[in-house]
Fold this protein.
Amino acid sequence: QVQLVESGGGLVQPGGSLRLSCVASGSIFSINAMGWYRQAPGKQRELVATVTSGGSTVYAASVKGRFTISRDFAKNTVYLQMNSLKPEDTAAFYCNAVIRAITGRQYNYWGQGTQVTVSS
């Protein structure tokens, strides 16, 4: 079993910054990719950004140029630096990980979520 623990959410004013962190622990042979998704009230969960073990990244169009995803897979950790935050970024942010077990099978895991609120 694998656990993902997010941290770094909170309340910030428009134009401000936050840095989210997510640490994976448990039965991890290797990490194929980690990323962040978000879900605002009344909306579907959406991709924010992902990063693979090779360093390839994907960003939602709405966050390009403002958010930066980075990883330290030696520490089973992914980060999301969020700058120039807007009220529409308000959401619960969820960490996601695609992890390969020692058996060779891949599994998809989710964290519990951390709330980001952008408001004056």
